[in-house]
């Protein structure tokens, strides 16, 4: 199966990505980036809004939780291969978790990326986690993330918080 093959459905690609990830995990080998990236982008395919006008499939709470758990499982695998250190991957993860109303999980993933010293190149992920911390009223995380955001050379005044 080729990724982004127009002749396959997103569901087929997701099933293939999950099988690939779990097979590699079971064998102790590193999962290729493409299946993990595809899983990380699952938030773009669904809506958690009950009055869904976007044409995306609306998820129940149970389905939403399954998608969140799948994204978190992909993060564990991505950490093994250092994909979790790539800002493009973390941007997809943070956006998807936020779209799945998984603010606490988003904050936890991004806090794990933030080193005590030096710059953090995960700008989009930090922005998403800042918004998540604001919504969750997690002021400790908000302060940590805002400080790291500024320390990394990004302008927090343009954020809508």
In a nutshell, what does this entry contain?
The protein has 161 residues and is mostly helical. The chain contains seven helices and two strands, in the order H-H-E-E-H-H-H-H-H.
Chain-wise SSE layout:
Blueprint: H1 10-27, H2 33-40, E1 46-47, E2 57-58, H3 61-80, H4 87-99, H5 103-113, H6 123-136, H7 139-151
Parallel strand pairs: 1-2
Helix pairs in contact: 1-2, 2-3, 4-5, 4-6, 5-6, 6-7
Would you write up a description of this structure?
This protein is mainly alpha-helical and 161 residues long. 60% of the residues lie in helices and 2% in strands. The radius of gyration is 16 Å and the shape is globular.
Task: Write down the secondary-structure element order.
Answer: HHEEHHHHH
* Largest sheet report: 2 strands, parallel
Provide the spatial order of strands within the biggest beta sheet. Answer: 1-2
pLDDT under 50 segments (min length 5)?
A: none
Mean pLDDT: 90
Multimeric organization: single chain
Q: What's the overall geometry?
A: globular
The counted number of beta strands is: 2
Please state the structural category. Answer: mainly alpha
β-strand amount: under 5%
The percent of residues in helical segments reads 55-70%
> How many helices?
7
Through-space gap between termini: 43 Å
Task: Sum up the structure in keywords.
161 residues, mainly alpha, two-stranded parallel ribbon, 7 helices, 2% strand, globular
């Amino acid at each position: 199966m080729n990724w982004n093959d127009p002749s396959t459905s997103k569901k087929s690609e997701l099933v293939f990505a999950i099988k690939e990830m779990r097979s590699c995990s079971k064998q102790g080998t590193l999962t290729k980036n493409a299946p993990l990236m595809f899983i990380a982008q699952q938030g773009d395919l669904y809506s958690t809004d009950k009055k869904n006008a976007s044409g995306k499939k609306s998820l129940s709470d149970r389905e939403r939780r399954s998608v969140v758990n799948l994204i978190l499982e992909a993060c564990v695998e991505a950490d093994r291969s250092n994909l979790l250190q790539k800002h493009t991957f973390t941007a997809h993860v943070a956006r998807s978790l936020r779209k799945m109303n998984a603010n606490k999980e988003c904050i936890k993933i991004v806090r794990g990326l933030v080193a005590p010293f030096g710059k953090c190149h995960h700008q989009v992920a930090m922005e998403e986690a800042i918004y998540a911390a604001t919504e969750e009223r997690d002021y400790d995380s908000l302060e940590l993330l805002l400080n790291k955001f500024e320390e990394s050379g990004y302008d927090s005044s343009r954020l809508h918080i």
